């Protein structure tokens, strides 16, 4: 079993920055892929950024150039540095991980989410 705990959300003014963290703990052999999603009220869940086990990253067009995904393998923690925030970035940000939990066994896990509100 893997637990994912997000932190770092909050209220920020337009143009401001926040850094989200997602810490993975529990029983697993390795993390295969981690993803940040977000969901705004009345909207579908949106993939924000992805980072693979080898460190390859990918971003939604809406956040390219403003957000940076990274990870610290030693701490089993993923980060999302968000700069130049706009009200359109307001959402609950959720962490997802695909973890290797056994020989040829992988499972999906979700965090509880952290609220990001961009408003003046």
Itemize the secondary structure elements and their pairings.
Elements lengths: L1 E6 L2 E3 L5 E9 L3 E10 L6 E7 L4 E3 L7 E6 L4 E6 L8 E12 L2 E6 L3 E5 L2
Parallel strand pairs: 2-11
Antiparallel strand pairs: 1-3, 3-8, 4-5, 4-9, 5-6, 7-8, 9-10, 9-11
Quick synopsis:
With 120 residues, the protein is mostly beta strands. 0% of the residues lie in helices and 61% in strands.
| Global Rg | 14 Å
Helix content: under 10%
By oligomeric state, this entry counts as: single chain
Low-pLDDT residue intervals, each spanning 5 or more residues: none
Number of helices: 0
Mean pLDDT across every amino acid position: 96
The number of E-state strands comes to 11
> What string gives the helices and strands in order?
EEEEEEEEEEE
Q: Report how far the terminal alpha carbons are from each other.
A: 40 Å
Net shape: elongated
How big a fraction of the residues is strand? over 45%
The structure class reads mainly beta
Main beta sheet strand tally, sense and closure: 7 strands, mixed
């Amino acid at each position: 079993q893997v637990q994912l705990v997000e932190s770092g959300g909050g209220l920020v003014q337009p143009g401001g920055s926040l850094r989200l963290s997602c810490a993975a703990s529990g029983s697993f052999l390795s993390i295969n892929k981690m993803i940040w999603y977000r969901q705004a009220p009345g909207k579908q869940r949106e993939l924000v950024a992805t980072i693979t086990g080898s460190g390859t990253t990918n971003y939604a067009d809406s956040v390219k150039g403003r957000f940076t995904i990274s990870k610290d393998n030693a701490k089993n923690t993923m980060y999302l540095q968000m700069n130049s925030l706009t009200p359109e970035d307001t959402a609950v940000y959720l962490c997802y991980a695909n973890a290797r939990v056994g020989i040829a066994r992988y499972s999906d896990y979700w965090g509880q989410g952290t609220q990001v509100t961009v408003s003046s």
